[in-house]
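pasting for ref. prot 1 ->
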Amino acid sequence: MSDDTEKATLRAIARQRRRAFVASLDPLAHRLAFKVIPSPLARRLADTQVVALYMGLDDEAPAQRLAAPLQAMGKTLALPRVLDRLGSMDFLQWHTDAPLQPGPFRTSHPEPGDGPVVPDVIIAPLVGFDRAMNRLGQGGGYYDRAFARYPDALRVGLAWSVQEQEELPADPWDLPLHLILTEIELIEGA
């Protein structure tokens, strides 16, 4: 099985598991998930300023819930803006009370304002992850390219615990995550 076929199969399985898990969650547990930044993550964020989040869609882990605790820490927030269908995106400063503009693939982003910002931390959605800190994304390469473009940024995956896989294939261009935050734990890379 080719890597692309294997990844497509793993994505389908992971999406189904995530969908079933989120549907089974108690509504209160769902509303409380990802509203607090664990202290080990807070320590890793201490010397950072710009944190890129994303607006969770459907049953994705809702990164926007981290906005309030990050703002309380004095962080500048940003959201990704998809630039084209070739996998390019940048990050725009985000104020939580500002309206968002519709983007490709059902994404939303802030007005360009003063233009793109450079993230110190990129909190990325994912479809699956493993303990080797590999991330299985949607398949468009947007976050892979962002990680390469901002190599000094702390790479954090946000996921539901059920999205963990035993092992994921990694291509040479895949950069491993530094941290993975789920609703039950913070996983740190080596």
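and prot 2 ->
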Amino acid sequence: MKQTGILFFPAFDWSLGTSHPEREERLLYTQEQLFEEGVLDLPQIRQFTPRIASLNDAAQAQALFPTPSSYAEPLEPHLIAAGSAILLGEARVKGEITNGFVLVRPPGHHSGATVWGNRGFCTLNNEAILINQLRARYGIKKIAVVDTDVHHGDGTQDIFYHDPDVLFISLHQDGRTLYPGSGFIDEQGGPNAWGQTLNIPLPPGTGDEGYHYTLETWVLPRLQAFGPELIINSAGQDNHFTDPLASMNLTASGYGRITELLRPDLAVLEGGYSIEGALPFVNLAILLALAGEDYHHVREPQKIGRSSLPFASLKSYLETLKKQSLMVKPDFLIHNVKFFPQGDWVYIPHSVYYDTEGFQETRHDFVRKCNHCAGTVYIESQRTSSQKSVLVRIPFAACPQCEQAGYDLWDYVQHQHQEIKSGVFQNQLHNQHDVWQRKKD
């Protein structure tokens, strides 16, 4: 029998404020709704208990600056959300479930390769930590992430921007109208993974028909061409017509159809802040679709009050957007720093605003061009003039040249900055290495 896993973690001890949209009630109303509908009694539904991830698990995907112990808020809720995603992902890979829904908070898709704090309600990236654990422990290679949150999944994009084995697709409200102000069609991947990032910025007012058309005509063909071993849906629900933070017009039933079209192996909750008017019904529709049950009868109590974008206008917009996307060509700046190992290094400046805490991170990213792997990445990250950090990443399945380049770079950093206060997160997993780290004075 088809088995659909479900896991709840409301994170009672993590809140940005009792009246903040990101609070534990986001999941409590959903639990009540599922109990009332009797969905959890379906024979194909299997519940799981949350599990905490380790800092080493997180370090395979992200570098926490200056140290994990320096964060004002506790990391445990974030580690439990990430660990719960890993748990359900492992159950899927082992064949214990057919698919699953990770209903956890805090969310994670705005958290990138370097982390100085919370931004967009996110500190750790649940999907990225999950993906790297599945790759390291189970040898999964090709994974697709389809982010349907109303906000661009800029953190997930950042982590996998140079990785040709991860296809990242984000459908979101146009970044010119909404946080985080990114996710445009020219963002298509780094020099070793061009075309492996697909951003589809949608205009405000896009509803069910527009989303389904975009999936059927653009997203699904791209997934089929890539041929992933796993599909993960970053299932943000702030596209709903009642959401207070955005301007889209999806319905609960529309979300069910998105899930039916995507057929994800795993859906991981991201945003969604209409706590009573949307989340219980959207989550119900998604779970029913995953379980192969009829979701069309799910109706939220309110009626759509926002004006919807006419479908003909959206169709014309998407056709133009597709043409513009095909016209974008890679244009990378080669910048070989004197201490870099042999090879061509592409320089990509990067700036990240932490809206929750109100500061700017400035980054200087360098990636080694390579025809054989994702390429070694060297990042200098700076929060203030006195807080500078270095991250060296050796990719999964690194070629010998990129692997050696990563270790040579880290040796250089160690020799040049003897006052590093905390060591290196270094993980060797089936001869695939990721080197991360920390603080240089």
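The first strand starts at residue 4 and ends at 9.
Residues 112 and 155 are 4 Å apart (CA to CA).
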